Amino acid sequence: MGAGGSAAGAWVARCGKEVSVGVDDAQLRDLAERLVSVRELEARWAAISASVEGQGELTEALRVSMLCAATRAALADRYRPYRPRRRTKAEIARERG
């Protein structure tokens, strides 16, 4: 499990039985893994939003579209047209003259 998720899951499994009535250990693990996944998606969304906003390309429609992405792949698909291209050594040399 990832950082932050395991401690909460372990606490609920040990001490929070009254809070987690009807939820077994496997379901708690699944919930903890999903929480980590959602947090990672949220962090990636923030990084992509900052990148697109820095380019001056972030519109309300694009922001909403990225917020509605349910997976990292869907988020990457929406980001692809705005992703900065890698510059090769030859391109850098041509720019310098």
DSSP strand (E) fraction? under 5%
Whole-number count of domains: 1
* Tally of DSSP helical segments: 5
SSE run = HHHHH
CATH class: Mainly Alpha
* Class from secondary-structure proportions: mainly alpha
CATH topology: Arc Repressor Mutant, subunit A
Report on this structure.
- With 97 residues, the chain is mostly helical.
- The protein has a single domain (23-96), classed as RuvA domain 2-like (Arc Repressor Mutant, subunit A).
- It contains five helices and no strands.
- Helix 1 (5-14) packs antiparallel against helix 2 (25-54) and helix 3 (60-67) packs antiparallel against helix 4.
- It is elongated.
Q: What attributes does this structure have?
A:
97 residues, elongated, Arc Repressor Mutant, subunit A
Outline of the structure:
The chain has 5 helices and no strands. By secondary structure, the chain is mostly helical.
Strand-helix topology:
Elements: H1 5-14, H2 25-54, H3 60-67, H4 72-79, H5 89-96
Helix pairs in contact: 1-2, 3-4
